[in-house]
Design brief:
It contains 20 helices and 11 strands. The protein is α/β, with parallel strands linked by helices. It folds into 2 domains: about 75-145, no CATH class; about 150-475, Metal-dependent hydrolases (TIM Barrel). Helix 1 packs across helix 20 (about 460-485), helix 9 (about 205-220) packs across helix 12 (about 295-315) and helix 11 (about 265-280) packs parallel to helix 12 (about 295-315). The longest helix is centred in the N-terminal third of the chain and has 32 residues, at about 1-35. The radius of gyration is 24 Å and the shape is globular. The structure holds zinc ion (ZN). Zinc ion binds near residues 54, 325, 356 and 416. Zinc ion binds near residues 56, 325 and 416.
Length: about 475
């Protein structure tokens, strides 16, 4: 007993008190520099970031890396537009990229190629296309540069995370696939697709038909095998993406499954089923999401149906976590009716543990009730400031981040698509600190912790991650106090 007391008094107690004192000093320093952009950038670059839990694999690598990879693999390039192809296209301007490497115009062409797949030079080259269209176009243009290079690109993501003092990545990686040409699957499509669309006014009846579809896919179409193959593929790429000399030993990576919300209902259901099945059988795959433009026609038409599907699968697989892109909308993109309920449905019907973006919350009919529901049920919102600024044109006080905080909803800060948007996790914190002046350093520190607390790591891993974050903050604050403030 006495030994324990001595331990507490002489060892633990001074650490706690000194740690607290350092936090106070860093708070003072932060308030002093918060209006100086350069000093604030430096501060947030070095600050531990905890976890980035909303990051798309296909949008994360920088254009420069993708282009170099295309050169290395001698892919094809359109000499005029900079578009890259994985094999010879039916296009007279296309040449193997290495054949023009020494040409004088190559550097300009590289710049153009990068601007096609990112926001670089957007105002010079691509401003004729609306920002949200340009953004979503980049994915198919990037496809030839990402497909087949998964481990290399994962390595790049890890290097970037380490550079920025990020300790945990939860990556929306690759969607599961199944054989769409199988006769039994074709029968499934033709039987259920029109049935699901005609359901639009009979919301209560979906579970019965979902159960039928679920049984058919699992029993007749070997969906457990597809799910197993998917999880093996992820595990294999995860293994191959280890960095040399165990450089990533302090970085934890988990993966989220997802399905696109722009395809036909039976396909969304089938992909979602594979996402839930494989998340249920794997420790690297931790949950399910839904992606693609929320304002697309089919996405708007079927949003209610997709939320019913999430609710159904939540009952089947209660331990699989759910994050839903919801409310990535503005009054300019959709009608007031379409703007008025997506977040509410995602948390109440879709049973989301987290929502992505949530920008439309001010415009939802039951905005205050939904915010209260999110607070009471500890449903976090993933805030992506640069993404919302470019794609939606929403920033500063038009952005609802302070509204969520005001209502006590857990907020996490994430990157969405750092490579396309040419941004970093540090820069997202910079924007938060610069734009929202009432936030203190301690508030921001809590938001960093939220990236671990509301991650989909299992509890024991979460505890370890929190301890690691404690250590990193102690080191960071000591450095600021002893080496920066002097
Ligand atoms: Zn996203």
């Amino acid at each position: 007993m006495r030994q324990k007391f001595y331990f507490l008094f002489f060892f633990l107690f001074p650490i706690l008190v000194l740690g607290q004192a350092n936090t106070e000093k860093v708070e003072t320093y932060f308030q002093r520099i918060r209006n100086n952009d350069a000093m604030l950038q430096a501060f947030f670059l070095r600050m531990p970031k905890g976890g980035d839990v909303h990051t798309h694999f296909s949008g994360a690598p920088f254009g420069e890396f993708l282009f170099e990879n295309a050169v290395k693999n001698n892919l094809w390039i359109d000499k005029k537009t900079g578009e890259i192809f994985d094999k010879k296209p039916n296009n007279e301007n296309a040449v193997p990229i290495q054949s023009i490497r020494k040409e004088a115009y190559f550097a300009d062409l590289k710049d153009r190629a990068i601007s096609l797949i990112t926001t670089k030079n957007y105002t010079n080259f691509n401003a004729a296309i609306p920002p949200n269209t340009h953004f979503f176009n980049t994915f198919s243009l990037m496809n030839p540069m990402t497909k087949g290079f998964e481990p290399e690109l994962l390595k790049e993501m890890k290097k970037q995370a380490l550079l920025e003092n990020v300790q945990y990545l939860e990556i929306m990686f690759i969607k599961p696939s199944y054989d769409k040409n199988d006769e039994k699957i074709k029968k499934y499509f033709s039987k259920y697709d029109s049935l699901l669309i005609s359901f639009s006014k009979k919301r209560g009846e979906t579970d019965k038909i979902f159960e039928e579809m679920y049984q058919y896919l699992v029993k007749e179409c070997n969906f457990s095998d597809f799910a197993r193959k998917h999880s093996e593929k992820i595990a294999n790429w995860n293994r191959k993406s280890r960095l040399e000399n165990a450089a990533d030993s302090n970085l934890t990576v988990r993966y989220l499954n997802y399905c696109p919300r722009t395809t036909f209902p039976t396909d969304v259901f089938a992909q979602m089923l594979l996402g839930f099945l494989s998340s249920d059988m794997d420790t690297l795959l931790v949950g399910e999401n839904i992606v693609a433009p929320e304002n697309a026609d089919v996405a708007l038409r079927d949003c209610w149906l997709h939320m019913q599907m999430f609710g159904f699968f939540h009952k089947k697989f209660p331990q699989v976590k759910i994050s839903i892109h919801a409310g990535e909308l503005t009054p300019e993109l959709v009608t007031p009716q379409d703007l008025s309920w997506h977040i509410e449905d995602a948390v109440r019907v879709g049973k989301a543990n987290r929502i992505g973006h949530g920008v439309a919350i001010p415009y939802e009919s039951r905005n205050y009730e939904t915010l209260k529901f999110m607070r009471e049920n500890k449903i976090a919102v993933e805030i992506n400031l640069s993404s919302n600024e470019f794609i939606l044109g929403v920033k500063n006080s038009e952005h609802p981040v302070m509204m969520y905080l005001e209502f006590g909803v857990p907020v996490v800060i994430s990157t969405d698509d750092a490579g396309i948007l040419r941004t970093t996790h540090s820069y997202q914190y910079f924007l938060l600190g610069k734009r929202y002046n009432s936030l203190t350093y301690k508030d921001i520190k809590q938001i960093v912790y939220n990236g671990i607390i509301y991650s989909f790591l299992k509890d024991s891993d979460k505890e370890k991650a929190k301890k690691l974050l404690d250590q990193r903050f102690a080191t960071f604050e000591k450095m600021i106090v002893n080496e920066v403030m002097k």
